[in-house]
Amino acid sequence: MKLRFAQFSTTILFALVMGVFWGTWFSLSRSIETFRAQTFLDIGQTAIRNLAVPMAILMPVALLSSLVMTALSWKRSTGFALSLAGLVLMISALVITLAIEVPIDNQIKVWTVTTLPSDWQALRDRWEFYHGLRTFVSIAALALVTASSLRTRQEV
After folding, report:
1. Which domain holds residue 55?
2. Among residues of the chain, what percentage have pLDDT more than 70?
3. What is the dihedral of CA 143, 144, 150, 156, to 10 degrees?
4. How far apart are CA 18 and CA 90, in angstroms?
5. Which of 126, 83, 84, 82 is CA-nearest to residue 104?
6. How confident is the model over 6-19, as a mean pLDDT?
7. Measured distance CA(53)–CA(55) in Å, rounded
8. Contact (Cβ atoms closer than 8 angstroms) between residue 126 and residue 108
């Protein structure tokens, strides 16, 4: 029962995290290079304000749930391996977020059209590349924890 709850909560939480990344990538990032500076700032600063606090809560809770799921499935070799791989990938998404995305976000937060640095497009492109990477890493993480849940049921 504990394992099933951990599997359910981890799947839902990973889906929410991945959904935030996917939604941004799918709706904005694929055309972000066409935005004028003011549009880029308006959208970017709004997204940063709307997502920073919720994601600072959601991501650690998702990782904690995944850690519990992984610990509870350790006796089920395939389920454990899939769960652990999903956890590692979501930790990788967090590392990308904290090491690359957040420092760029912190710069974007305070920019205005008149204070944009001359290399703002290069920073935007760097952010976009790593956002895409983080998005697809989180999709793989969700797929792995889902597969772990399905596999663990077969191993019981």
Report:
1. 2-155
2. 97
3. -170
4. 9
5. 126
6. 97
7. 5
8. no
